[in-house]
Amino acid sequence: MLPRGIPHLITFACTLPRILFYTLARDPEILREVLVSGYAAEGRSLARIEGKVVFIEGAVPGDLVDVRIGKNKKDWAEGKVIRFHQYSLHRVEPFCSHFGVCGGCKWQMLPYDQQLQFKQQQVQDSLERIGKLDLPALNPILGAARTSFYRNKLEFTFSNRAWLPEEEYDPQQEAFPRRDALGFHLPGGFDKVLDIHKCYLQEDPSNQIRDTIRVYALEHGLSFYDIRTGEGWLRNLVIRICRSGEVLVNLVFHHDDREQRELLLDHLIRQLPSINSVVYTINSKANDNLSDQQCITYRGPGYLLEQLGGFQFRIGPKSFFQTNSYQGEKLYEVVRTFADLHGEETVYDLYCGTGTIGIFVSPGARRVIGVELLGEAIEDARENARINQIGHAQFFSGDVNTICNDLFFQEHGAPDLVITDPPRAGMTSKLMDKLIDMESPRIVYVSCNPATQARDLVKLGDHYTVEKVQPVDMFPHTQHIENVVLLLRR
Questions:
Q1: Angle, helix 206-219 to helix 258-271, in steps of 10 degrees
Q2: How far separated are the first and last CA of the chain, in Å rounded?
Q3: In this structure, which CATH number among 3.10.520.10, 3.40.50.300, 3.40.50.150, 3.30.210.10 belongs to the domain 117-146+324-489?
Q4: From the candidates 96, 102, 352, 448, which is the catalytic residue?
Q5: With contact defined as beta carbons under 8 Å apart, do 322 and 339 qualify?
Q6: Any long-range contacts for 426-430 (C-beta under 8 Å, 24+ apart)?
Q7: Which helix (H) or strand (E) holds 41?
Q8: DSSP state of 142
Q9: Residue 448 catalytic?
Q10: What is the pTM of this model?
Q11: pLDDT digits (tens, 9 = 90+) for 82-127
């Protein structure tokens, strides 16, 4: 008889875990009464069975659950919760009515202090277990003062294929029932959209904007986009709100219909005259990426001005900008502290986006050189340098791996400090080889993925030591974590 809390199969009379998992490999089954014992990366929890780890989605440590096994390997398995027998004592009541369906804020059931503990652990585990690095003591994670209404940008999707709760969906129907929705894509469902009624990610008037447009569209019979057929008129709604209260709305249409477009936009402006800028985009492509599309200003300047750390940053409809301005300011302050500039240094800001980090540290530098792939981001960076009267910063458009060659460094000077903020995939080996060759005394590595950051630190480890580590929570109620590492040349 297995002890209480150890998973077992009711339908299979065998108590040996190795035979149990062999059976699961042949015919996936359900594990009953699994006691969730720990936290794993990417928002999952785990249970351990005779040295084998089961990664569990939808649970927290302390839950007693039934788990449907998906993948099952020799040393690990993964599955999803299908029933709760007992909830963890650490759980709290989620505040959003969409919790459990919407994939945006998966950790609402955890007290915020525990979320921070798990995120700190995620950074520690990534650097120690993946990187196997000698580390200084990690600085305590910088938590957020605002744990709701903290995002400055949200993107909603129009769809004629609203997600339906199980009790409203008849799988015997020949076709999926059509119902219009304006909200978020469900995790893993490219063609199903959850109709959002109130979102706690962005402060008002975000909810009023979304609801005003949806009500008007439904009352006037405007067609919502069908991603499967490519038909329909209304596609996306992007809302940006600065800490100053400035608001920009970008409404994306599949094709232009001037009469209907102007009627809709004028209605929005009449209902919510506090909106500073209204723009629209015509996107007839199969995907929703707007990087190669023209955003046309309908009302206002067509951009916002955000203030961080005494600097102003221009944010347009397609600008890349930290989506949490409040925590973004804390993050940049960490980078500036780690940089420890004294006025004589040449600083390279790689993956610089709209130049926010380079501009933030510029008062302490002799020269700032920024590199970013997206040409429009570089245009924003140059404009941001002009707005802030920073004449010693230059920004260049192109692939970091191509631009950062010997000739580039010869022209602009050897780096005294390199700041790198790569995408989730981390840096390429080619770029890290170049950084090693350039022998920069200091590197500040900003990462939104501690696992790939740990991998990169291994590559740099023969030439650099980890001096400081500072996790920053940018996205409360999610599993995501930002981490800043200071590296010193050996």
A1: 140
A2: 56
A3: 3.40.50.150
A4: 448
A5: no
A6: 426/452, 426/453, 426/455, 426/456, 427/456, 428/401, 429/459, 430/401
A7: none
A8: B
A9: yes
A10: 0.87
A11: 999 999 988 899 999 999 888 889 899 999 999 999 999 999 999 9
